[in-house]
Design goal:
single chain, 407 residues, alpha/beta, eight-stranded parallel barrel, two-stranded antiparallel sheet, globular
Amino acid sequence: MTPLTPTTPVLEESAKIRDRLLKVQAEIEAAATTTETRLLAEARQQLGYDDSDAPEDAELIDSRVSGKTAVLSPKMLSAVLPVSKRSAQTTDAARQAIIRILEHQDLRLMVIVGPCSIHDPKAALEYAEHVQRWRQQYGDQLEIIMRTYIEKPRTELGWKGFIYDPLLDGSDDINLGVVATRMLACQITDLGVPIAVERLNALTPQYLNALVAYDVIGARNTTDQKSREYASATSSPVGFKNTPEGSIEAAAQAIVSAKGKHAFLGIGSNGTTKQINSSGNDTGHIILRGDAQGPNYSAEHVAKVKALLQKKGLRESIVIDASHGNSGKDATRQKDAIADIAQQVRGGEAAICGVMIESNLVAGAQKLGDPADLVYGQSITDACVDVDETESMLTRLAEASATRQSS
């Protein structure tokens, strides 16, 4: 296969891969069904179970399911879209850098920056080139990771993210979504740009194996047991946001849970159900994202979180999201949060390890309508700041980080 480049058209190439692999999947499933039917019949006979009087259950199952579609396995995708040497180096180096920052061995700031959500691969790759430049420009002060969020939590209904509906038209072609998501992640990391994702579904992580430098458990999922179990097993450093109502305690509890060992259900690389036994993840930390009452990024808020972490015997490592409740959902107010955070860092606050910024090629947001009418490079979910405003924020953070490093 021709190596991927930033100019490889993601959706078009992904459709070709999807169609070919679905044929492979169909052959595999047909062979498996034949073997399964034979072996189960033999097992019933050997065990002495007679199902001749089994009741008809057709009306008792799937009563609200309108369809089922085979989904490509992670193993199939990795066979066609393997992780390049440079991508692997990018991910590993960023993970190790983030861990050193969280453990206060590295006084640089981690910055998670990028679109609220990815919806256009071409625009995402163009944005990644800016991140590549920023990493070179600010590398001595900042460890910059690109937001590459492909799952979006919905309070009620709405577009759920690129991996679920990559064509933005309600066709919900998840097979196209998983292929395109992996291809895009391969392209971005091969540029030397590490990526961060927010995890919502326990099954999707396998499709991005070895490509994710930083995991986020969102505000709506911090209290979810499945998310905590996943976090205990992920190979990436992981942060937990405070809940939408503002509970810091819930995020701290999640950190404790993720540090422990768990046994839970997941999928293996071949897509079959597995019992996953995790060894625990000690990289967990709190992400302050504000709440319905307002921001929680001030020095007073940071001091309260540090006291809570001390009480629980947890490391004093905090990341602050400049968006969401900390900006009052007004993207232009992210700069106010950044100014306050930078002042704290400049003053030597070691607990602040990182910052999150919602940024895109074009400022603002637009509603998702006809995909053909969308403004290129502008968010279809939360509003973002543009590249120039982002660079201004990064400059301020870099200056603050440099001061903290020299003190």
